[in-house]
Write a structure and sequence with these properties.
It is a single chain. With about 325 residues, the protein is an alpha/beta fold. It has one domain: Inosine-uridine Nucleoside N-ribohydrolase, Chain A, CATH 3.90.245. The chain is built from 13 helices and ten strands. The strands form two sheets. Strands 3-2-1-4-5-6-10-7 form an eight-stranded mixed β-sheet, sandwiched between helices. It is globular, with a radius of gyration of 22 Å.
């Protein structure tokens, strides 16, 4: 083959190999996934880190955030301020029915600062049901607190609740308990906070028929150590500054970002691979596995380093 013929053949190969690439570039962009976050923000600090990741994820469209468990109005005011200070005051905040609890609202001072506080908040169940009716089959409910609002939704209108696209849940414990970081043989499960604080609502959720993606303690014990905190907090953005303040008000040393994993999973599901399982919730709040048709997709393991290599650059970016 002559040199000229070889060059023509090479050019043709390059041209044809570029066709799929050009086609892919002209494809219609995927629409953001519509989500509503249901959170008990203000006690542990991981909820704030989960909301922060959602705010920095263009793959997600946050239709609203609802508060659950305990002093839900103060939780809503915390979100008002967090959203206002980061330029997201357009996101609605709804408040669930308050409940009597004895846990410490560690970030109350931030919530009661009065900044960006709204005059009122719609009722969580009414707001969420309204959104489901508006977007049937399109909304993912991200449940990262006790399931009080979920139970109220099912009691109020189970048929509409059934039109959720899915529920992505931080909750449960299958093989590993609190403090079991996966470096040794599993020490067995224990009742997890979000499940044990409203067992009847959790049972209603797992019987609802809505697709459930469950991130239990087995895959969510993600320790934000000193080095990672420094990388995030020194970013100096409005969002990183809010997280810094809430971290210090929380008052402990190393947060575990349990609630951030469900948000990360929606954008990057390979961070927490799931398997089909059947989950039964017993009278003590254990999430037991049992034979039978699956009612949840459960993530039993994750790679914390891969998670933080994704999380920190995204949340700390200008």
């Amino acid at each position: 083959m002559s040199r000229r013929a070889h060059m023509l053949e090479l050019a043709a190969g390059i041209l044809f190999s570029a066709v799929p690439f050009c086609h892919a570039q002209s494809a219609t962009p995927v629409a953001p996934e519509k989500i509503i976050i249901d959170t008990d923000i203000g006690d542990d600090v991981d909820d704030a880190f989960a909301v922060a990741l959602a705010l920095r994820s263009p793959e997600l469209q946050i239709l609203g955030i609802s508060t659950t468990f305990g002093d839900t109005e103060t939780r809503a005011r915390l979100l008002d301020r967090m959203l206002g200070e980061t330029g997201h005051s357009d996101i609605p905040v709804a408040a669930g029915a308050p409940t009597s609890v004895n846990n410490v609202f560690t970030q109350r001072h931030y919530a009661e600062g009065g900044h960006f506080a709204r005059a009122s908040h719609p009722k969580a169940a009414d707001y969420i049901l309204e959104q489901i009716r508006r977007y049937p089959g399109q909304i993912t409910l991200v449940a990262i607190g006790p399931l009080v609002n979920v139970g109220a939704l099912i009691d109020q209108d189970a048929a509409t609740f059934g039109k959720l696209r899915r529920v992505v849940l931080m909750g449960g414990s299958i093989e590993r308990r609190y403090g079991d970081m996966g470096y040794s043989k599993p020490r067995g499960p224990e009742p997890e906070w979000n499940i044990k604080n409203d067992i009847p609502s959790a049972r209603k959720l797992f019987a609802s028929g809505v697709p459930i993606f469950m991130m239990p303690l087995d895959s969510t014990q993600l320790k934000l150590d000193e080095v990672k905190r420094d990388m995030l907090f020194r970013a100096g953005t409005p969002l990183s500054d809010v997280l810094t303040i809430l971290y210090h008000q929380w008052g402990y040393v190393t947060p575990t970002l349990f609630d951030a994993m469900p948000v990360a999973y929606m954008v990057k599901p390979e961070l927490c691979p799931v398997k089909a399982m059947r989950i039964r919730i017993d009278d003590e709040g254990y999430t037991r596995t049992e034979p039978g048709p699956p009612n949840a997709q459960v993530c039993l393991d994750s790679d914390p380093e891969a998670f933080f290599r994704y999380y920190i650059p995204r949340v700390s970016a200008p």
